[in-house]
Every structure is written in structure tokens, then in C-alpha cells.
């Protein structure tokens, strides 16, 4: 576009307005922007991604909240924790003879006359929180924020207490509207046309925090997204960006400017009643910022790497990293080679398809023989290692009391019309350690039974039941589960049970930051590789399965299925995309070793 | 007051100015709701305050309106403003031409503001509709005149009914409107406020013609729109249109009294004003006393007890789970209910709502004039209909008393669908196809699936005049090795079945299954809460891990499975609840793997009394068979590496399957013919006869009357699968085959290889009984030989040795103990601990 370069960073609304004006020059009525955009979106997308100004946009964090000016461009990363439905607003209106737009704003700058010609547009409200269990290394540090040019480099802090990671929640409300009427001369005497309502939904999100906000550490955000859910959806949104619950997004947009907006402290009867709307129970703007979103994109594990190197995974390099990582895991696990192998496969697993209710590809791991002493030595270490490797991790110390009191499943609270989060509302690809070693005999109450069932369902089906009071809804998840227990866990029937046999107490050496980064990159990248099987290999596998079953009748479908999952992960761990005989045999051998231990 | 002469002018009545009006007037929505309400609710409150209300239309509001609506063509719209009001063009000429004549002699037709919809046209169209509409069969134009004489229009009849019962609303099926006049339908959906207003007007005119003194106002309630949207798809273009959505009520506000008319009194002179109606959601308090003598300023006070209020309620509606896309949370929408609709639904109800979608602007503060650019949306409710709860419609033929107030609309398939289903049923291999479609990802187990299919379709329940009843539900028990996908089958059936309830035996208590009594926390009354079995009345109750269930809980099942009721007697409540449910249970063998040398009873520790109540008992054993293994291997490999879709062809999708089953359950009631009955009898006798071995005293029971009943149910279910009204011979043969397959697996006496129902009914097979008798005899002989009466006692172990020697075979100590115990009960010996003594 040959026009003037807009100051996207500090005055995005200006750019919105002037593009709107420009667009209105050629079109007589903003309703023709039905498809949602008059070009501002493209401009921003172009500016952010094609011209890679993306990293210059400051990140919204509790710290940066203080100095970020309203109405400037900011980024926010978070998980969609709840969806608050759609919001209708006056998208464009006629101020005198001039069209103006309210898009990306909560309050119109100019009073809208009672008789004004208006267009109603729609946006979506999303309540976003920081990714639960986000580890410190995956966060964008505050230094990075201040240093705008270096946006993504963050200090390399290791092992920060998880609590800190958890407490930056924010709700982003990203608003994507369609055409914003900016000051634009309209032909006089034009009939007030039918409300041209744009069908695109804009997501208006205002942010608010659900929980009592801990010390400004957690930033929830209400994101208002103009979201073209329906017709105009394909216009500028790639299919993957369809917003789903529990997915992680980065939103680029502006912070709502007007902190004075209070909810109507209704004297008027009726509106009071209707105010059962989500915003009513929100804390004020300062606590939960409202955020209007221009552009959003889905994030995967790679996006949380600090120096996101886009490297084609080369086989020998991958192999090298694999060896190193395996060595490290072996050391951490007290030289237990078998457990380390399983651990590696486990860290690489993800649900890659679902057949009916079956989740294919999951590999939950249950390390048994964790007595009190072993836990004290290895439990913590293991926890730290996982934290350092995976972007989002959680740890649940399972006790009878915990089961009886914790709220694991998210629950809809109709009083405030919000989904109250539970410990099992996790982002896709989260890692969850369940420490069962502290579980002692006791009585479960009804909540405890329910929680145990939830955990069981999570392990078996990778599904969490959300409680909507009048009905329950199964939400699919993809969580890697690691169970530490003394004997085989019955609450959490994991796919693989490996008795833990450490031979040395503490032989883990210090790890360099580079190594850690390489491993993180390895785990995030290799997981995403495609995988297939040649037909000859398929024949071999089938024959092997049949032979194994003939030899041992106790093998059942789950066992065979596990082998295939493991073989897939095994070849992925070498960076290969199709199964080879060698890897297949490695898997069989590994499982044989494991079985021997079980005896 | 005169100012509100045209309702359309002061409200967002015409769709194009709708967005503006909410902004222009912060109270517009409430105001308009109020006004609408006034129009709809109270005919008796016309705005002209000086005329005593004589059933005037809600629109006869012009200041100069004449109180008698029967004058024709009194047009009140002033010359200056856009003529809007459908005024009292009420007089209806007896002939339909009169309506057409309207436009002719009126030079300037009245239009709805901003549109080209002529009020007169709409008026006439509605008149024609109400007068002329007849059900499909009789509405042909040719005979119009003729029919006029003979039949009454559907709605004329309905109006008369309403008048008779002094009702206050007339339900109008939108399908009828469409059928009669698609154009009117379109206008009605597009501009509901205006068209409904005219509708009411026309209606009232008709009413007053039929019964001039009728006082009440009757409103039109439109329902059953041609298309209903989902909550998710409501968008700005729907504002001010008539929409129909389905959902579940999640919250009801308390009832809010809304003021309609206020009366003020002057504090100085005590003079009362005339009723002041609500305008734009507000009542304007007169600033000056109207009495000539008084004229004091700001002296008016509201007289609460003389004001008039109406009921209002705000209800929140939420999407039902089936409408929510993956990864979404349910949307909600507010409903505004008035008058009769208040409390029409309660939280948890699934309803279908017809109403007008409206938006209302939000003010920043009570006192500020600035408006947020936001809107709140709600649906002004016109009609509410409760819909059925379950996925597969529950109403079905297994019910004996069809008459009890059931809504016939509940099961509704359109004809196209029915045609499709019927087409399907005609296919020769429908039985096989259905079998294949059932849990397609579980391979093999075809016979089990066939059994489950029968369970889904069910037999006919029967109630004799004597009061005895026979259940139509088929109960199935699956017993088998772990890892044979029993649980998956259960899960699948649970998803498919009407009112399926899934419980796990371990987590279920007796009360959880049946019913329990609790105290209501609010009122302190004792209330009966239904358990799983009662909730799955007319459905299938799936119980996993049946063997892990406590005996107490299991014993509750006895009553349910045969009598189909649950009886409760506690805490002052004695009740018998219907639990017409099929039970699908699965159990693991007690020793984790099935021991083929033991009987079913020994393998699963279930009481024989309960076991015999299952129609079919399947043993799902893991057999060492290379063919099966290969299929399994192929299946698993394809699960992991191929597109799973590609491997299943020719399989019905789950919704077709569900529809098929529910349609069959509802509409097909197969009967037994004499020939088939004969066949059943013969087959049954045949089976019984198999128990008699020629030349052997051993009597084996191979079938019991319970099996005969099962056979009848199974054959009925099989006929139903084919949508056949008569059970045929092949159904009976198949039923025999199914039963036999199940019997062979579970009731085979492994010692002899014959079917023995005693195994199921008593837990002891005939051959076992004979063996025990022989044992007792041998023991008796030995004791006679070794021990003298009154002589020294003998230790059991010694006895065991003796026995082994004399019989020359291995003898178990437990068997010996049993034998001695039998002898002791005969008084032949006495036992003291380990020693045996002759008495």
C-alpha cells in the first residue's frame, strides 16, 4: 500500500481509523464490509508477520501493565479459559454526515445521536488466563518486554517456583470487528438503511481475574476478538485459528483505553435483570484488563522456546541430541536405563488421533517401586527435570485429603455465569505428574470418588468431564501423565508400568543452558513429525503381534496397541518418519526388559 | 398520552431503525417491552384515558380514536407523520372482497415505516388466514364458497374455543401461516412487531364479532416456525426478527411485578389522577395537579395499591450439549417472559422458544447520558414449548399404557426421514448391516452384537387383564476375560440407547441404583430422588463390573429385572416406581480369567436367582485362535497407522442407527401369529426333551419357562428390526439360535458337554449332583465299615485316605466334608471338629 506508513505500535487506532476512512471513500455504506474487514487486518498482519515487527510489540504482563499506555499495540499470550459468548455493539455509526467506527473500542469517542444511523456488529468475548503451569523458562521475561527490539530473548532463569509461573493469568479479550466507520463523509440524505449488521462476530474480551488476584502477579485478560466464525471466517483467518477452549493463543491488539467504565449500577429496573451478563461480575478494568484483539495465532510448544531456531531436524543432529538427553535422563533416574528409555518415549507422546472414544498415541507412564526414601531422592529431581524440559507442567500430590477436597473438573457457576477452572483444565500438551506415594488408606467422600473417576477417565480416555450442572460435557485433552507410586496405581491405570530400579543415588551433573535449549527444541519439534509405516513393515509387525499372542495368551489389545505407540515414538525419537525393523525390535526388547522387572 | 398514538413511531418498531432506537433511548427496550406488553397483555388499557375500555384493540390508540371499533376505515394516522398505525380498520366485510376493496378506495395506503409493507395488505392477509385456513385436506380454492358453508376454518374454531374457556391466547402454527400465505409468513418473521400487532388487532375484531361482550384480550402466540436457529448462530441480522431456538433453561429470576399503569394523588387536595400508562419504560409523574382549583406544583405522590402491575420474569437459556461444537462452551441467552409465560419452564427443562430477538443498549451509569456502544440482547418470548429430554426419543411401544398424557409431538420424524428408514428396513441384509454398524471398531463378537441389537429394539410388553404383566425388556449379561472390550460395548450401547444410564458396580450402592429419600434443604420436606434404574426407565441401564457390586445392591435388582418396579418403604414414603429398564451388565470372572473347568456360577460369584433373570448370558472368552489374532493385529495396526475412516465401509452412522431404533420402538409392534406360536412351542419342547437321556435316570433341565419368555421377546425384537408387523418363522429360528449360542457358552456343563439350565438356576449341574450323591454313598459305606456305633471317632484325614483307597481316585477334602455334612444331617454320624463319630 503506497499510503503513509502508520504508526502501528503507538497509535494502532489511528491506523484503523484512517484505513476505515480510506475504505469508506470507495464504498458508500459500511455494511458492505460485511465480510468483516476493510483492509486493516491485512495491514496489521502484514506489518506484524511479513515485516516481522512482531517481536517489537511489548508483551502484556503484570509488570508491563503499569507502563503500557492504553491504545497502543501489545501482545498477550494465554490459554482460553472460558468463552463468554458474543457481544453486540455499534460497529459503525453516522456522526452527522460522517461515518465513524467503534471497532476495537469499548466507548465511542463521539456521542452517538439518538437518531444516528448505526450498524451493529458482533464480537466474541474470551476469558484468557496465562497458560496453566507455564514454566519460567517459557515465559517472556519482563526484560524482554522493556527491550522492545529484543522482544523474545528472555533471561534464562531456571527452575522458578511454579507458583510464580502460575500466577500470571490474564484474560485477553480480543476484539475483531469488521468495518470501523471512521470519519467519513456520507452522502447526504441517504435513507437510514436497514441496520446493516455485520455477521462476523467480533470477539470482545475484557479481562478480569477470577481468583483473588495474587499480588499483581497474575494477569487475566478479557479478550475481545472480532472473530469471523461463520461466513467471513475464511477471509482472513486460517482454519487453525478457530478458537477453542483450552488452546493457547497469542493475541496482538490494544488494551482498552477507558478505565472509567463501570458496570451500570443499575437504578433502572430492567437492564438490571439482564445484567446477568458475564461482565457484571468482573473486577474492574485495572485488575482484569480488557483487550481488543487485531490478530491472533495459535501457539504450539515450539513457540515457547526462547530462541526459536527454525532448523530442519537433521537425522544425525537429532540422534546426537537424543543420546545426550537419554544420558541425562539416565543419570537423573539413578542409572536406570530402562526407565530412562520409557521416560523419553513418554515425553514425546501425544494423542495423534481419536477413534471413537479411543485416544491413540498417548503413553502414560507409571513408575512404581517409589518408596519413601526413593521419592525423597528422585522425586524432586524428576520433577525439576520435567519442568526444565516441558513448557507446561503440573504436579499433583495425591492424598486422600486432596481427592476429597480438590476441585479437579472445571465447573460452571451460574451465579456469576463463569466457568470456574479446575486442576484438570489444562492446555493441550501439558505434562502432569501425579505423586501417589503419599496416598494413604482413608475414606473417600463423594467428591473424592468423583475426582478419582475423573483422573481415571483422564488416563484412560484423555477426556475431562466439565460440569455444567444440568449436564456434563466431555472435553478432550492431551495431557502426558506420569504417575509415581509404590505399587501399581489403581486410580490411574497408566499405559506402561515400569518398576523403578535406581543403582546410584545422585549422579546427575550440571546441565548447560545450551544443552537444555537443544533438548527443549528436540522435544517440541520431534513430537510434531509425521509418521507412517511401510506395507512390508506392517506385515512384519502384524506377524510379530500374532506370534506374540500365540505365545502368550495374556497379551491383550492394549498391550499390542502400546507396542505400536512405543514403536512410533521410538522412530520419532530418532527423527525418522517411518518405522524401521530396528526400532521395532528395540521396542520389543524394551518391553521384554520391562516385563522381566514386573515378575 | 396522545403522543403514543402510534406504537410504531416511538419504538424501534421498524427493523431498520432498530439499532438507532436503542441508542437514542436508553430505556427503549424496556419501554418497548412494556409497550408491547401493554398492547399484548392488556387490551383494556388503551392509551386514551378518557374512554372506558371496551375490548379495544391494542392499537386503537390514536388520541381521536373512536371508542367503537366497528366503524370502518377510521384512520387515525395524522396527515403529517408517516402513517403507520394499523388503526381500527376493524370492520370486516362479510365477503373477502371487502378486504380487497380497501386499497381501492383509500388513495394513500398505510405502510409500515421504512418498508413497502402495506398495513392494509397485511391486515387483509391475516383476516383471510384466520378465516379461511383449513387443514391441508380441505383447503382448495374451488370449493371455497362451498366449504364456507360446511366447515369452519381451523382458527375460527380455535377462536371459539378460546372464547369459551375464556382463554387469553391463541396459538397459531407458523406452518399453517406459511401454507396459507408464504408472503405473510415472511413478513411476520421479518417484521414481527408490526405484523403481530396487526394480528392481534384482527383477532380482537373477530372475537368481538363472535361474542361482542367478550371482555378479555386475546393474544396471538406464534409457534413452530419453519426454521429454527441455534443460539450460536444468532447474529445482528436477526435483531427484531422472529426466531425460534432450542435450549435448556438454567435460571429463572423471581417474578418481577412490572408497573403498567400508575395512579397519582395530589397531596394537597387529594385529587387522584387518571391512570398514567408506562411510556418508554417510564412513568411520568405529573408535575402539576390537574384540578382547576388546586393546581399545586410537585404535589403528586404515587398510590401503590391502585397501580396495575403485570408479571415479568427473566429466564436464561443455555445451549444443549449436542449443539456445542468441539472445544466450545455453551452459549446462553436471556428470555423475557410475560404474564402467562411466567414460570412456564423451570431450570433443567429443555424448551423450544419462539420469540423476537432484541437488543438493548447499555448505559454507562444510571445518571450519565453517554451510552456504551454495547448492546445486551434478549429474546422477547412469544411461545414456549417443552421438548423431550433424551436423545433417542423415549416414548415407545414397550409401554403398555400408551394413553397416559404423553405428548404426541415428542417423536417427530419428517416424512423424508421415515421414507429413508423404511427403505433401509427393506434391504434383505438389514439385520447384518445393523450388526456391523453396532460398535464397528469392536471386531468379532457378532453374536453378542446381535443380542445387543435385540436388546436395543426390545420386545413387546404385555399386560394381562388379570394384572399380570410380562416385560418386553431384554436383559443381557456379558461375562468374560479382561480386555475383551466388554466395557467398550457397554459404553457404546450407553451412548446409543434411550435414557441410557451407565454405572459401575463398584461405585454403585443400592440406593444409588434404585431411589432414595432425602430432605429437601429448603422446605424440609422429604423427597424421593430417583436412582440410576429409575432414571433409565424405558431405557437401558448399563452396569459395569457387575460382580464387584455389593450383594445388597444386587439384591435390589431382583425386583427390577422381573417386576420392573422399584419399591421403596422408608421415612414415611411408600412408593413403587416404574423401572422398565433393560439391564446390560458385564462381569469379570472371579479369578480374573475364566476357568473353563468351573461353571459360570463358580466363575462369577453371582447368585443363581439373579443370573436366571438375564435373557442372554454371553461368555466372551479369549480363545487362542490365530485367525482372530491376525484380525486383531490388523485392526490395531490400522488404528495406529491408517486413516481409521477408510477401514469401515457400509456402516450406518450413529444418528441413522439411533433414528432407526427409535422409529422402530415407537411405531412397530410385531405380533405373534398362530403358526409362529406353534413353532415356538415345538422348539421349546425340543429343547426340554434334550435333557432326557434315554436309559439314564439323570434328568437335566435344558430350558425353563423363563427361556420361553426370552424367546418370545427375542423374536419380537428381531421382527421389529425388519419393521415387520408379524413375527415370522425365521425370527423364531434366529431367536433360538441366539439363545442357544448364549446358552452353550454359559450353561454348558463342562463335565458332560450338555446344556444344563440347572447350572444357571441352581448353580449345580445335574452331573455334579450325581457325583455328590456317589460320594455320599461311598463315604457312608466306609463309615459303616470302619466305625462302630458308639465306638471311637475317626479323624477326617484318615477317612480321606480310606476313601481314596477304596475308590481308587483322587478325592478332595472339601468334597468329603460335604458328604459327611450330608450324612450328619441325616443323623447317621456326628461331627466334632475334625473327628467323625457314628451316632
UniProtKB/TrEMBL annotation, chain B:
One term of GO molecular function: ATP hydrolysis activity
Main localization (coarse): nucleus
SUPFAM superfamilies: Nucleic acid-binding proteins, P-loop containing nucleoside triphosphate hydrolases
Gene3D superfamilies: 2.20.28.10, mini-chromosome maintenance (MCM) complex, chain A, domain 1, Nucleic acid-binding proteins, P-loop containing nucleotide triphosphate hydrolases, Winged helix-like DNA-binding domain superfamily/Winged helix DNA-binding domain
Hydrolase among keywords: yes
Subcellular location: Nucleus
CDD domains found in the cross-reference section: MCM4
E.C. designation(s): 3.6.4.12
Region of interest (Disordered), ranges: 1-107
Superkingdom: Eukaryota
InterPro entries: AAA+_ATPase, MCM, MCM_4, MCM_CS, MCM_dom, MCM_lid, MCM_N, MCM_OB
An annotated GO BP: mitotic DNA replication initiation
Family, per entry: Belongs to the MCM family.
Job of this protein: Acts as component of the MCM2-7 complex (MCM complex) which is the replicative helicase essential for 'once per cell cycle' DNA replication initiation and elongation in eukaryotic cells. The active ATPase sites in the MCM2-7 ring are formed through the interaction surfaces of two neighboring subunits such that a critical structure of a conserved arginine finger motif is provided in trans relative to the ATP-binding site of the Walker A box of the adjacent subunit. The six ATPase active sites, however, are likely to contribute differentially to the complex helicase activity. Probable component of the MCM2-7 complex (MCM complex) that may function as a DNA helicase and which is essential to undergo a single round of replication initiation and elongation per cell cycle in eukaryotic cells.
Descriptive protein name: DNA replication licensing factor MCM4
Organism per entry: Arachis hypogaea (Peanut)
Amino acid at each position: 500500500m503506497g499510503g503513509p506508513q502508520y504508526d502501528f505500535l503507538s497509535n494502532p487506532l489511528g491506523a484503523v481509523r484512517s484505513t476505515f476512512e480510506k475504505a469508506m471513500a470507495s464504498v458508500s455504506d459500511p455494511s458492505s464490509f460485511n465480510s468483516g474487514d476493510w483492509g486493516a487486518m491485512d495491514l496489521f498482519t502484514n506489518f506484524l508477520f511479513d515485516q516481522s515487527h512482531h517481536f517489537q510489540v511489548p508483551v502484556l504482563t503484570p509488570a508491563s501493565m503499569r507502563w503500557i499506555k492504553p491504545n497502543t499495540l501489545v501482545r498477550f499470550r494465554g490459554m482460553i479459559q472460558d468463552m463468554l459468548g458474543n457481544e453486540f455493539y455499534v460497529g459503525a455509526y453516522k456522526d452527522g454526515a460522517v461515518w465513524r467506527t467503534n471497532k476495537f473500542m469499548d466507548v465511542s469517542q463521539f456521542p452517538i445521536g439518538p437518531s444516528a444511523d448505526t450498524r451493529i456488529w458482533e464480537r466474541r468475548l474470551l476469558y484468557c488466563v496465562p497458560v496453566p503451569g507455564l514454566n519460567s523458562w517459557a515465559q517472556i521475561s519482563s526484560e524482554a518486554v522493556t527491550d522492545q527490539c529484543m522482544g523474545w530473548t528472555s533471561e534464562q532463569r531456571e527452575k522458578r517456583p511454579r507458583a510464580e509461573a502460575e500466577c500470571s493469568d490474564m484474560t485477553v479479550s480480543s476484539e475483531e470487528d469488521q468495518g470501523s466507520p471512521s470519519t467519513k463523509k456520507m452522502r447526504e440524505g441517504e435513507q437510514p438503511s436497514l441496520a446493516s449488521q455485520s455477521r462476523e462476530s467480533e470477539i470482545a474480551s475484557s479481562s478480569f481475574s477470577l481468583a483473588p488476584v495474587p499480588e499483581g502477579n497474575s494477569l487475566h485478560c478479557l479478550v475481545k476478538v472480532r472473530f469471523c466464525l461463520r461466513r467471513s471466517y475464511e477471509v482472513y483467518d486460517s482454519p487453525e485459528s478457530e478458537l477453542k477452549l483450552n488452546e493457547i493463543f497469542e493475541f496482538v491488539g490494544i488494551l482498552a483505553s477507558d478505565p472509567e467504565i463501570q458496570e451500570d449500577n443499575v437504578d433502572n429496573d430492567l437492564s438490571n435483570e439482564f445484567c446477568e451478563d458475564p461482565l457484571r461480575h468482573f473486577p474492574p478494568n485495572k485488575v482484569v484488563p480488557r483487550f481488543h484483539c487485531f490478530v491472533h495465532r495459535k501457539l504450539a510448544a515450539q513457540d515457547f522456546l526462547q530462541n526459536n531456531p527454525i532448523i530442519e531436524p537433521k537425522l544425525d543432529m537429532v540422534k546426537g541430541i537424543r543420546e545426550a538427553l537419554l544420558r541425562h535422563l539416565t543419570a537423573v533416574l539413578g542409572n536406570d536405563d530402562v526407565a530412562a528409555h520409557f521416560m523419553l518415549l513418554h515425553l514425546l507422546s501425544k494423542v495423534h488421533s481419536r477413534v471413537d472414544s479411543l485416544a491413540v498415541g498417548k503413553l502414560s507412564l507409571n513408575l512404581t517401586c517409589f518408596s519413601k526414601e526413593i521419592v525423597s531422592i528422585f522425586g524432586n529431581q524428576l520433577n525439576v527435570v520435567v519442568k526444565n524440559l516441558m513448557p507446561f507442567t503440573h504436579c499433583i500430590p495425591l492424598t486422600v485429603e486432596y481427592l476429597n477436597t480438590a476441585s479437579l473438573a472445571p465447573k460452571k457457576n451460574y451465579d456469576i455465569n463463569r466457568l470456574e477452572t479446575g486442576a484438570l483444565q489444562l492446555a493441550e500438551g501439558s505434562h502432569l505428574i501425579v505423586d501417589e506415594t503419599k496416598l494413604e488408606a482413608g475414606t473417600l467422600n463423594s467428591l473424592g470418588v468423583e475426582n478419582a473417576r475423573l483422573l481415571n477417565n483422564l488416563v484412560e480416555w484423555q477426556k475431562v468431564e466439565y460440569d455444567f450442572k444440568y449436564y456434563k460435557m466431555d472435553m478432550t485433552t492431551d495431557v502426558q501423565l506420569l504417575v509415581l507410586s509404590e505399587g501399581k496405581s489403581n486410580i490411574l491405570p497408566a499405559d506402561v508400568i515400569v518398576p523403578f530400579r535406581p543403582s546410584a543415588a545422585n549422579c546427575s551433573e550440571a546441565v548447560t543452558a545450551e544443552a537444555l535449549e537443544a533438548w527443549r527444541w528436540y522435544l517440541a519439534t520431534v513430537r510434531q513429525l509425521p509418521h507412517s509405516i511401510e506395507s512390508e513393515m506392517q506385515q512384519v509387525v502384524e506377524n510379530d503381534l500374532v506370534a506374540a499372542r500365540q505365545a502368550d495368551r495374556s497379551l491383550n489389545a492394549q498391550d499390542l496397541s502400546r507396542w505400536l505407540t512405543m514403536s512410533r515414538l521410538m522412530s520419532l525419537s530418532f527423527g525418522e518418519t517411518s518405522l524401521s525393523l530396528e526400532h521395532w525390535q528395540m521396542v520389543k526388547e524394551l518391553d521384554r526388559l520391562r516385563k522381566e522387572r514386573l515378575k | 398520552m396522545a403522543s403514543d398514538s402510534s406504537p410504531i413511531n416511538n419504538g424501534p418498531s421498524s427493523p431498520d431503525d432498530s439499532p438507532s432506537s436503542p441508542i437514542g433511548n436508553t430505556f427503549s427496550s424496556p419501554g418497548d417491552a412494556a409497550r408491547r406488553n401493554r398492547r399484548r397483555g392488556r387490551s383494556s388499557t388503551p392509551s386514551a384515558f378518557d374512554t372506558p375500555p371496551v375490548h379495544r384493540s391494542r392499537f386503537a390508540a390514536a388520541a381521536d380514536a373512536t371508542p367503537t371499533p366497528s366503524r370502518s376505515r377510521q384512520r387515525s394516522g395524522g396527515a403529517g407523520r408517516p402513517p403507520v398505525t394499523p388503526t381500527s380498520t376493524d370492520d370486516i366485510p362479510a365477503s373477502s372482497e371487502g378486504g380487497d376493496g380497501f386499497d381501492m378506495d383509500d388513495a394513500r395506503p398505510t405502510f409500515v415505516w421504512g418498508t413497502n409493507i402495506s398495513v392494509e395488505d397485511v391486515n387483509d392477509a391475516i383476516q383471510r388466514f384466520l378465516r379461511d385456513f383449513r387443514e391441508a385436506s380441505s383447503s382448495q380454492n374451488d370449493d371455497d364458497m362451498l366449504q364456507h358453508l360446511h366447515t369452519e376454518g381451523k382458527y375460527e374454531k380455535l377462536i371459539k374455543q378460546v372464547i369459551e374457556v375464556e382463554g387469553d391466547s391463541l396459538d397459531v402454527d407458523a406452518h399453517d401461516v406459511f401454507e396459507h400465505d408464504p408472503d405473510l409468513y415472511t413478513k411476520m418473521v421479518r417484521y414481527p412487531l408490526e405484523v403481530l400487532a396487526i394480528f392481534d388487532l384482527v383477532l380482537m375484531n373477530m372475537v368481538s364479532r363472535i361474542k361482542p361482550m367478550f371482555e378479555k384480550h386475546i393474544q396471538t402466540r406464534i409457534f413452530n416456525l419453519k426454521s429454527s436457529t441455534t443460539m450460536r448462530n444468532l447474529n445482528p441480522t436477526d435483531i427484531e426478527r422472529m426466531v425460534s431456538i432450542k435450549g435448556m433453561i438454567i435460571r429463572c429470576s423471581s417474578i418481577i411485578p412490572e408497573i403498567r399503569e400508575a395512579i397519582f394523588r395530589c397531596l394537597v387536595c387529594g385529587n387522584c389522577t387518571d391512570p398514567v400508562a408506562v411510556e418508554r419504560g417510564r412513568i411520568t409523574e405529573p408535575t402539576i395537579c390537574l384540578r382547576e382549583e388546586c393546581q399545586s406544583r410537585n404535589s403528586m405522590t404515587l398510590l401503590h395499591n391502585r397501580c396495575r402491575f403485570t408479571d415479568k420474569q427473566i429466564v436464561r437459556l443455555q445451549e444443549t450439549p449436542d449443539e456445542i461444537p468441539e472445544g466450545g462452551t455453551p452459549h446462553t441467552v436471556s428470555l423475557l417472559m410475560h404474564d402467562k409465560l411466567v414460570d412456564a419452564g423451570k431450570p433443567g427443562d429443555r424448551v423450544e422458544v419462539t420469540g423476537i430477538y432484541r437488543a438493548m443498549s447499555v448505559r454507562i451509569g444510571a445518571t450519565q447520558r453517554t451510552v456504551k456502544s454495547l448492546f445486551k440482547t434478549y429474546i422477547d418470548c412469544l411461545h414456549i414449548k417443552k421438548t423431550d429430554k433424551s436423545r433417542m426419543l423415549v416414548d415407545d411401544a414397550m409401554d403398555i399404557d400408551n394413553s397416559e398424557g404423553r405428548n404426541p409431538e415428542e417423536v417427530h420424524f419428517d416424512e423424508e426421514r421415515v421414507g429413508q428408514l423404511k427403505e433401509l428396513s427393506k434391504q434383505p441384509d438389514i439385520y447384518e448391516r445393523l450388526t456391523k454398524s453396532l460398535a464397528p471398531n469392536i471386531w468379532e463378537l457378532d453374536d453378542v452384537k446381535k443380542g445387543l441389537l435385540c436388546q436395543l429394539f426390545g420386545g413387546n410388553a404385555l399386560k394381562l387383564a388379570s394384572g399380570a404383566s410380562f416385560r418386553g425388556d431384554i436383559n443381557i449379561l456379558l461375562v468374560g476375560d479382561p480386555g475383551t472390550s466388554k466395557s467398550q460395548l457397554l459404553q457404546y450401547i450407553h451412548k446409543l440407547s434411550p435414557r441410557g444410564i451407565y454405572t459401575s458396580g463398584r461405585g454403585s450402592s443400592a440406593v444409588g441404583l434404585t431411589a432414595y429419600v432425602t430432605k429437601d434443604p429448603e422446605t424440609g420436606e422429604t423427597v424421593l430422588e430417583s436412582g440410576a434404574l429409575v432414571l433409565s426407565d424405558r431405557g437401558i441401564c448399563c452396569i459395569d463390573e457387575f460382580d464387584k457390586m455389593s450383594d445388597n445392591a444386587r439384591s435390589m435388582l431382583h425386583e427390577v429385572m422381573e417386576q420392573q418396579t422399584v419399591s421403596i418403604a422408608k421415612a414415611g414414603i411408600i412408593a413403587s416406581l416404574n423401572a422398565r429398564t433393560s439391564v446390560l451388565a458385564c462381569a469379570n470372572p472371579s479369578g480374573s480369567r475364566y476357568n473353563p473347568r468351573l461353571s459360570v456360577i463358580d466363575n462369577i460369584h453371582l447368585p443363581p436367582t439373579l443370573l436366571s433373570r438375564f435373557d442372554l448370558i454371553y461368555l466372551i472368552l479369549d480363545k487362542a485362535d490365530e485367525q482372530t489374532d491376525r484380525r486383531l493385529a490388523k485392526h490395531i495396526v490400522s488404528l495406529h497407522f491408517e486413516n481409521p475412516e477408510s477401514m469401515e465401509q457400509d456402516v450406518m452412522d450413529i444418528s441413522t442407527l439411533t433414528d432407526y431404533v427409535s422409529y422402530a420402538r415407537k411405531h412397530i409392534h410385531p405380533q405373534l401369529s398362530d403358526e409362529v406360536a406353534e413353532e415356538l412351542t415345538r422348539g421349546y419342547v425340543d429343547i426340554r426333551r434334550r435333557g432326557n437321556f434315554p436309559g439314564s435316570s439323570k434328568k437335566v433341565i435344558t430350558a425353563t419357562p423363563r427361556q420361553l419368555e426370552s424367546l418370545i421377546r427375542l423374536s419380537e425384537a428381531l421382527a421389529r428390526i425388519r419393521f415387520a408387523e408379524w413375527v415370522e418363522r425365521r425370527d423364531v429360528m434366529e431367536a433360538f439360535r441366539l439363545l442357544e449360542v448364549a446358552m452353550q457358552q454359559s450353561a454348558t456343563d463342562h463335565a458332560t458337554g450338555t446344556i444344563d439350565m440347572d447350572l444357571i438356576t441352581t448353580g449345580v449341574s445335574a452331573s455334579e449332583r450325581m457325583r455328590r450323591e456317589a460320594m455320599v454313598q461311598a463315604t457312608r459305606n466306609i463309615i459303616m465299615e470302619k466305625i462302630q456305633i458308639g465306638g471311637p471317632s475317626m479323624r477326617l484325614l484318615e477317612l480321606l485316605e480310606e476313601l481314596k483307597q477304596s475308590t481308587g481316585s483322587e478325592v478332595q477334602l472339601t468334597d468329603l466334608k460335604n458328604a459327611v455334612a450330608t450324612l450328619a444331617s441325616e443323623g447317621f454320624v456326628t461331627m466334632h471338629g475334625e473327628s467323625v463319630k457314628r451316632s
